[in-house]
Amino acid sequence: MSDPAVLLEVEDLSVDFELRGVSVNAIQSVSLKVSAGETVGIVGESGSGKSVTSLAIMGLIREPGFLRSGAVRIFGQDMLKLSSRQRRKYLGRDIAMIFQEPTESLNPVFTIAQQIDEALKRHGGMNRTQRINRTLELMKIVGMPGPEKTLRSWPHQLSGGMNQRVMIAMAVACNPSLLIADEPTTALDVTVQEQILHLLHKLQQENNMGMIFITHDLSVVSTIADKIIVMYAGQVVEICATNDLFQQALHPYTEALLKSLPENYSRTNKRMDSIKGSQPGAGETLPGCRFQPRCTYARERCRQQAPALNTIENYSSRTVRCFYPLVSDNDTGNT
How far from chain centre, in Å, is Cα 252? Predict the structure, then answer.
């Protein structure tokens, strides 16, 4: 990699799933970069390919899924060219992940202390006393009330917010350079959600950690991400700085997401907008643009041809997958 600040570089990543003898595309040609201290948000509806992208980066795609193409470079090392054993040296130490459902990711038959200790044993290079001290330190770092009691507990004895803090503690136990957080605030109430976001931001700043933050909620990602990648039906449809996206969406799907935010209607009597229709189903192939059946701006070309990602130079070099981005007539400088 030419830029030493770049922690992760994903290039042309595509994943398929084999269903009833037919290959179904889950994500197509996803590319992204994450630098030290940077947060990249990935947003989109459920089924847009966000979680599959994160699992592919971690090398955790299992049958019937398989990698069709792409490269995932961490510090310049292509993880996809490594064996499972070689890849495990990086996972947890250099790159870690907070999974979507903590209650499903934590082992119900082991205490919290045992599960954190296992992560430290695998990568930490510590003796037992050091691991015990580090485990207690991690509980305090993530703001766990009653840390000693929590460590003696099983996952089912903790609340959703406490389990999420445990997952964060396990993820940052070995001070990874890159953290992937997959819907870390889902199913948490607003107060706990804010606490988790604040905690992640604090940990990132203290360790200059890069982060990929995955969510379906644009209002959440607006508070934490430096850059946003919008995904639809397995494709990246827009990439831009967070502030730019909220000032003006260039892809019709991004505009529709912004219009459906509840806070836009909290002080008015207007009915909240929604995106009509649904994403293409598994194995469903459509001619042209994948969003065109739901797009209010679709034209005949959109129904016949598939658009590529293009750069709009006059809009801070933003990247959009659309033949007719939402720009003024004089600002369509595609490259």
Answer: 21
Tell me the domains of the chain and their CATH numbers: 6-225 (3.40.50.300), 251-321 (no CATH)
Q: Two tokens at 145? A: 């009330």
Distance, CA of 12 to CA of 29 (rounded, Å): 4
Query: Which token pair is 51?
Result: 């979680």
Q: How far apart are CA 51 and CA 169, in angstroms?
A: 21
pTM of the model: 0.91
Element (H, E) at 111: none
pLDDT digits (tens, 9 = 90+) for 88-127: 888 888 999 998 888 788 999 999 999 999 888 887 678 9
Reported as a single tens digit per residue, the pLDDT across 272-286 is: 677 888 888 777 778
Structure-token pair, residue 226:
């430096």
What distance in Å separates the CA atoms of residue 53 and residue 10, rounded to the nearest whole number? 10
Q: Which two tokens stand for residue 269?
A: 């009597």
CA torsion 319-322-325-326 (nearest 10°) is: -110
What does the DSSP 8-state code read for residue 178?
E
How far is the CA of 335 from the CAs of 130, 307, 318, 329, 330, in angstroms? 54, 13, 11, 16, 15
**Amino acid type, 204:** Q
Task: Tally Cβ neighbours within 10 Å of residue 135.
Answer: 23
237 within 8 A of 257, measured Cβ to Cβ: no
My answer on whether omega of the bond before 325 falls inside 30° of 0, hence cis, is no
Provide the b/e sequence for 180-217 (b: ≥16 CB within 10 Å): bbbbbbbebeeebbebbbebbeebbeeeebbbbbbbbe
DSSP states along 271-282: PPP---S-PPPT
